[in-house]
Design goal:
There is one protein chain. The protein is an alpha/beta fold. Helices cover 11% and strands 24% of the residues. The protein has a seven-stranded parallel beta sheet, with helices on one face. Strands 1, 2, 3, 5, 6 and 8 form a six-stranded mixed beta sheet that branches. The radius of gyration is 37 Å and the shape is elongated.
């Protein structure tokens, strides 16, 4: 027994000795600094994460304290605007996209001749084989930059903030251009993307404020998000036939763009695609899109006509909001939803032809469309959103279909030219101050109140009558000819009622008067009484 215990103890001690003898590398996840550079140790090498912002020259050494420097993080030198040169050591094997962005003072990037992953030509950084353009220094004085014909891929942000370059020539060898590759090349006025390019990254030409024209590769299949955002001088562009989708904000803030054709090969356009294109006057949309996105034409102040293609099912929130010149809108029979604020502040729209396919009119959809004089809500619409037609001061006539079930809060608020509105019996939910209310001048005081003389028309014992009574608004029922008391039957009670009217003992609402004018001569007299007695006798 003792021998067994001694043997086990000997084995255990031997294992402990072996473990102690194994060399251990301590890995620090915390940042350290050396020569103005910040870094951390991964265990297999060092990663540069930043530098002293006052440095004007950066030399990334082969190693620090015996540990090889292998990587540079994304935007490691962000804010280091005083750097003029960067030299990469022999062991750098990985450089994250945008590592030198935005070093706006950088003039040259050099590479140690023993580095087998990267190289430089005239201070421009490439991979070792020169098939990838990694980074062009932002401040390098160069009027024209010709990309070598060995390059296949322009990496993300490779030429970002190269504000002094006036012309860039892309060779036919290039197939891929990365995200933000030409971001903020503000001196660039024109550029041609060769047909060899099949992939064009998002924001590739964003913030190029001097760009006036561009020719795109016919072999790309998409225009990515924010591709030309803030290209404020872009005047024209032709969308290639192979493009199937255009991303969100692709042309936002292109203030000089006046007209554009989205060809039928395009199947989707993103939200805010033309937001703040103040001078856009004319656009032809693809017949194959199914949605007008959120804020798609927001603040297109000169847009005056839009023909929405059949097949579009949704006009999203704020799609055409603040388009004050928009006067002619064609909404096809395919549209099901008109979003919140979709046409808000479109002051030039004078008529509205809503299709029967529409089911929902969103909140504030047509608020402040002060040019509207008539609104017809067609069969098919189920709900009218809050503030949908609020502050449409010149609407004189509103027709609501029998399919409508809900009228949202303030839906027709402050429609000062509207004297009456007929609410169908099918409407069961009438929102707070949705009808008959406004903000108007009463003597010397602005007040929120019901409009004097406003009338709600509807069937008796419905939500329309209940709303009118609750809000102190005049109510006029819907009456059949010969049934002025509205009980649904023409009988002796109606004769008695008409006799009182003729004698001047009873006052009638306009609809009751119409029901009593049996001969339709515009007067209520004994001849109407004779006809009514004949109707009762024949009943």
């Amino acid at each position: 027994m003792q021998k067994s215990i001694k043997k086990s103890l000997a084995i255990f001690l031997s294992l402990i000795i072996c473990i102690i003898a194994i060399p251990v590398t301590i890995v620090s996840a915390e940042n350290a600094t050396s020569g103005g550079l910040s870094y951390y140790n991964t265990g297999s090498g060092l990663v540069i994460t930043g530098c002293d912002e006052d440095l004007t020259e950066v030399v990334i050494p082969d190693d620090i304290n015996g540990n090889p420097v292998k990587s540079i993080e994304n935007q490691a030198f962000i804010g280091c605007t005083k750097i003029k040169t960067i030299t990469l050591g022999a062991n750098v094997s990985n450089i994250a996209n945008g590592a030198f962005s935005p070093c706006t003072g950088l003039r040259n990037i050099y590479v140690d001749e023993n580095n087998d992953r990267f190289c430089d030509v005239d201070g421009v950084l490439y991979n070792y084989e020169m098939t990838k353009l990694v980074a062009h220094p932002a401040a390098k004085a160069q009027d024209i930059y010709v990309i070598p014909d060995t390059v296949v891929e322009i990496l993300p942000r490779a030429l970002a903030w190269c504000e002094s370059i006036n012309e860039i020539i892309i060779p036919d060898s290039v197939t891929t251009i990365g995200n933000m590759a030409f971001l903020s090349c503000s001196s660039l006025t024109s550029i041609e993307v060769p047909d060899s390019v099949v992939s064009l990254g998002s924001e590739a030409f964003s913030w190029n404020e001097g760009l006036e024209e561009i020719k795109l590769s016919k072999n790309i299949d998409s225009i990515g998000d924010r591709m030309f955002i803030y290209c404020s001088n872009l005047k024209s562009i032709e969308i290639p036939e192979g493009v199937k989708s255009i991303g969100k904000e692709a042309f936002a803030y292109c203030e000089s763009l006046e007209n554009i054709v989205i060809p039928d090969n395009v199947e989707s356009i993103g939200d805010r695609i033309f937001s703040y294109c103040y001078n856009l006057k004319d656009i032809t949309l693809s017949q194959n899109i199914d949605r007008i996105g959120d804020r798609a034409f927001y603040f297109c102040e000169k847009l005056n006509i839009i023909d929405i293609p059949f097949g579009v099912t949704e006009i999203a929130d704020y799609a055409f909001a603040s388009c004050p010149a928009l006067a002619d809108v064609t909404i096809p029979e395919s549209v099901v939803r008109i979003g919140n604020n979709a046409f808000a502040w479109c002051e030039s729209i004078t008529s509205l032809n809503l299709p029967t396919s529409v089911e929902t009119i969103g909140d504030s959809a047509f608020t402040r469309c002060i040019g509207l004089t008539e609104v017809v809500i067609p069969e098919g619409v189920i709900s009218i959103g809050e503030l949908a037609f609020s502050s449409c001061n010149n609407i004189k006539s509103v027709s609501i279909s029998s399919t409508v079930e809900k009228i949202g809060d303030y839906a027709f608020y402050s429609c000062g030219s509207l004297n009456s509105i007929e609410v169908p019996a099918n409407v069961t939910d009438i929102g707070y101050r949705s009808i008959g209310y406004g903000y108007f001048l009463d003597g010397r005081k602005w007040i929120y109140a019901t409009y004097p003389g406003f009338t709600i028309i509807g069937d008796k014992d419905t939500s329309a009558e209940a709303y009118a009574v609750a809000n102190g608004i005049a109510f006029d029922g819907i009456y059949e000819i010969g049934d002025p008391n509205g009980d649904g039957v023409t009988n002796i009670a109606d004769i008695v009622n008409l006799q009182k009217v003729i004698c001047g003992n009873t006052k009638l609402t306009p609809n009751q008067a119409t029901a009593c004018d049996l001969n339709n001569d515009g007067k209520i007299d004994v001849f109407d009484l004779i006809l009514l007695k004949q109707m009762v006798a024949q009943a």
